[in-house]
Amino acid sequence: MSTSAQQQLQGQLQIVVDAHTPDSDLIPKHLQIMGADLRVQQSAWMNGKNMEQELTPGVYMVRLNLASGKHLEQVAHIQEGQVTKLDFDISRFSPRESQEWAYLTKASAGNNPEGPAYRSGNKKESVRLPNNITAQRWELKQGVWTATDDIPIKNVSIDEVGETYTFYVPEAMQVLELQVPGKASCFVSLPPVSEIICMIKIAEGPENVVPELDISISTPNNKAQVLLSLITSGDMARAKSLSSVKDAAELLYSKMRDPAAAAIGGYFLLKTGELEKMHDWANNLADWFPWMADGAIIHAWQVIQQGGPDMNIKAIRDRLIEAVNRGIPVYTEGLRLLYDGLTMLSFEFKQQDEAVEQAFARIKQYMAYADMSQETTTFTGIYPDQPGGAKKEETLSSRPVKKIE
After folding, report:
1. Are residues 211 and 322 in the same domain?
2. pTM here?
């Protein structure tokens, strides 16, 4: 049969996604085309509003998976030589135009590891926090936390809908501090990218359980953001359906272009056990970005998961202590793995390794005050190196951190 004859046997499926903001088009959506037997025949990412696909005539189920975990389905009747158009309207899922991405990538995409009631039920009364909330950034430079330039969050009020801010983060260990008078500050790690979107709103959930503020950080790397949301939710089944091992490996490989996304790719490969796809890239991520704790954590856990009688305990120990000295993991998944790794080492060395015990004690303090439902490491405290407490006793522009040897 000639090529032209084969083409005549095909029909065209045209997908159009309707969303009410241009930004919505940029949020990746996963498309699955299933045959009459409901087996997936084709799977692809949509990063715009239109997609076209040639198909053999027949009946198909087309499923559009959104970053939030919602999905829409339609039946397509493909006929030879004809165009079949399907319109998916997702605008009704958009909470607020300027903040859509931050909402869609929240950890509520799956089952929150903190439990289903963590951010549901017993919601706080709909109020505005006082209009004197301020913020500043801290950067860890050569073992010293230093207060940096102001950002556009000064004397503002926050409600349950929230406010969104955009700013640049250099390649450095930085945290954002939000200060509410009379209360412990809320700190959140900042991924190093050219532009981040920071959404702040009053947290929903039981009083004295969730922090006062809910802070959501997102970056322009949409594919990494979707993957991070699903990793944080613990919904790895959905994460596997929305992203392939190849996607995660490419994120890790592209570490020079986007180290934050590379870390997300590394965490995905760890959770799926695809260690052979990591090659030596995690080691490189740890070495080439000495200010980022996540690279050292990922490399340590690659060695742990590879296991075997020749497992290098010293290399694991050195990497995890190194991660603690670098400050705070950018991502909550890193904080969790750092805690688990140091727990294992403390048991391995029978609590006799002083450096391990110092590192373990420091991370336990962060864990005690961390909001583990967030994607980026978030905790309440007085200073970046002092989780817990109610308020500052003095105002400092820098704080040295004792290095663990």
Report:
1. no
2. 0.71
The pLDDT of residue 84 is 94
If asked whether residues 162 and 212 sit together in one domain, one would say: yes
Domain that residue 320 falls in: 222-400
pLDDT band for 269, please (50, 70, 90 cuts).
confident
pLDDT tens-digit map of 371-391: 888 889 999 999 999 998 766
Q: What is the pLDDT of residues 84-141, one digit of tens each?
A: 999 988 776 644 433 444 444 443 333 334 443 444 444 444 344 555 778 889 999 9
> Which of 95, 118, 333, 116 shows the shortest CA–CA distance to 199?
95
Last residue of a domain, one of 183, 200, 218: 218
Q: Do residues 380 and 240 share a domain?
A: yes
Tell whether 197 is covered by a domain. yes
